[in-house]
Design a protein that fits this description.
By secondary structure, the chain is of the alpha+beta class. It is built from twelve helices and five strands. The protein has a five-stranded mixed β-sheet, sandwiched between helices.
C-alpha cells in the first residue's frame, strides 16, 4: 500500500526556506510519486536536499531525497531520482556523532513531509564533533583501494574512480567546515578553498574520463591531503577490506566497489552521499 503525502509540498522546513516555484513543486511531486508507486517503505518523513534544495540544479542533476522509514533502509536510484533511506535511530546516532551528512541536511534540507516532527527531532540531536580526524582516518583507509599497484585495479576502474571522487568531495567539505564556512556545494567549496586539484574532479565528474591516469591523479591528490592513504601492504581490494573490517565505513565503501554496484549504498554509512 502506498504512502499518503500532504497536498501542500511546502511544509515545515529546517532552515526557513520554502519551495515556492511551480517547477520545484513539480519536481518534488514526481519524486514522491516515484516513492509511492514503488512502495519504498512506510515513510515517516521525507526531505529534499542537494542541488534542487539549493536551487543550483542543472539538467543532469539528481533529485535527492532523504526518507525516514521504520525498518530495512535501502538506497534507490532511478531516472535522476535518488532516494536514501534511514531509520530514525540511525539518523539520530549519526547526528549525535556529528555526521557531515546531518550537518548537510540541517543547512540545506527542505522538509517535504514530517507531520510528527520525527525528522526534526533527529536533526536537533546534531552535535558538532571536536574534530574530523576519525572521518579522515576512515577516508584514508578507503583511499588505499585506489592504489594503482593493486592487482585488481583495472577490473574495478569505474567504481574506484567514483570512490575517489567521493573521497575528494568529502575532504573538500570537511576542509570548508573546519575553516568555519561549511558548504555542501562544490562550486562554493572551490571559492572557499581555492584548490582546483581537490575540487576540479568533483566539479567535472559527469565529464570525467575513466582511465588509469585519471585515477592516479585522484589518488595523488588524496595522498597529498591524507598521507596515510599511501600506506598499503596488500595486493587486492578484498585484502584491504578484510584487514580493515574494523573501519566500518571504509570497509563498506571498498566492499561496494568490489560488488560492482553502480551507486554507493549510503544507507549503511554515516558519510554524506554523492
Amino acid at each position: 500500500m502506498g504512502n499518503s503525502y500532504p497536498s501542500s509540498m511546502s511544509t515545515r522546513v529546517t532552515n526557513n526556506k520554502s519551495i515556492d516555484t511551480n517547477d520545484r513543486e513539480s519536481v518534488i511531486s514526481r519524486a514522491l510519486k516515484f516513492i509511492d508507486e514503488r512502495n519504498l517503505g512506510d515513510s515517516l518523513a521525507t526531505m529534499l536536499y542537494g542541488s534542487y534544495a539549493r536551487g543550483t540544479e542543472v539538467k543532469e542533476s539528481d533529485i535527492d531525497l532523504l526518507q525516514l522509514v521504520e525498518r530495512s533502509p535501502k538506497a534507490y536510484d532511478f531516472n535522476h531520482i535518488s532516494v536514501t533511506q534511514y531509520t530514525p535511530l540511525h539518523l539520530k546516532i549519526m547526528a549525535q556523532e556529528g555526521s557531515l551528512f546531518v550537518l548537510h541536511l540541517k543547512i540545506e534540507g527542505i522538509s517535504v513531509y514530517d507531520h510528527k516532527n520525527i525528522l526534526a527531532g533527529c536533526l536537533n540531536e546534531y552535535t558538532a564533533p571536536k574534530s574530523y580526524d576519525l572521518v579522515k582516518e576512515e577516508l584514508a583507509i578507503a583511499a588505499r583501494a585506489l592504489n594503482p599497484s593493486l592487482l585488481d585495479t583495472d577490473q574495478h576502474l569505474k567504481s574506484l574512480t567514483r570512490l575517489g571522487i567521493y573521497i575528494l568531495r568529502t575532504l573538500a567539505y570537511i576542509k570548508c567546515t573546519e575553516a568555519g564556512t561549511p558548504t555542501f556545494d562544490i562550486d562554493n567549496a572551490e571559492k572557499i578553498l581555492q584548490d582546483k586539484r581537490l575540487t576540479g574532479p568533483v566539479q567535472n565528474r559527469r565529464k570525467w574520463e575513466i582511465s588509469p591516469d585519471n585515477l592516479q591523479n585522484i589518488y595523488d591528490v588524496i595522498v597529498d591531503n591524507l598521507p596515510s592513504a599511501e600506506e598499503n601492504r596488500y595486493k587486492t581490494l578484498e585484502e584491504i577490506a578484510v584487514a580493515n573490517s574494523h573501519y566500518r565505513h571504509a570497509s563498506a565503501l571498498i566492499a561496494n566497489v568490489i560488488s560492482g554496484s553502480k551507486t554507493i549504498d549510503y544507507a549503511a554509512l554515516a558519510l554524506p552521499p554523492l
